[in-house]
């Protein structure tokens, strides 16, 4: 199995909407780091798993979309707690719409909200 990983980071804000969230219930910032790991059993005719330019363009679009935004105000989080787990799923859906290489069979999206805490959403594409 081949795997190719690309990274970006940006600052965004959120607050948790669960009962009794403590200090996480008020708006606060994180320097989110996003890792996209594409996996597949074969390479394409050029010996690539994924077109890095397409993957990096998807990352740039993600950074542009979420940088300096309050996640709670965005339609993709409407009705949901904007947890780092939910954020990983939202990013997965955006990336699988943008990067469509036939050699990619799985995508893992890991979102780090600080140096010690991250969540991953991983599924077939």
Automatic annotation (TrEMBL):
Keyword Iron attributed: no
MF annotations from Gene Ontology: lyase activity; metal ion binding
Name recorded for this polypeptide: 6-pyruvoyl tetrahydropterin synthase
Keyword Lyase: yes
UniProt KW keywords: Lyase, Metal-binding, Zinc
Cofactor(s) required, per the database record: Zn(2+)
Any Pfam family hit: PTPS
Gene3D superfamilies in the record: 6-pyruvoyl tetrahydropterin synthase/QueD (3.30.479.10)
């Amino acid at each position: 199995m081949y795997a190719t990983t690309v990274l970006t980071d940006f600052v965004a804000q959120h607050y948790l909407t669960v009962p009794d969230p403590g200090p996480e219930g008020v708006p606060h910032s994180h320097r989110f780091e996003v890792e996209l790991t594409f996996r597949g059993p074969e390479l394409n005719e050029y010996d690539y798993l994924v077109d890095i330019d397409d993957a990096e363009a998807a990352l740039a679009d993600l950074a542009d979309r979420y940088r300096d935004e309050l996640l709670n105000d965005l339609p993709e989080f409407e009705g949901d707690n904007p947890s780092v787990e939910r954020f990983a799923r939202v990013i997965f859906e955006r990336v699988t719409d943008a990067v469509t290489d036939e050699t990619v069979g799985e995508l893992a999206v890991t979102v780090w909200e600080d140096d010690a805490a991250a969540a991953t959403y991983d599924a077939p594409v």
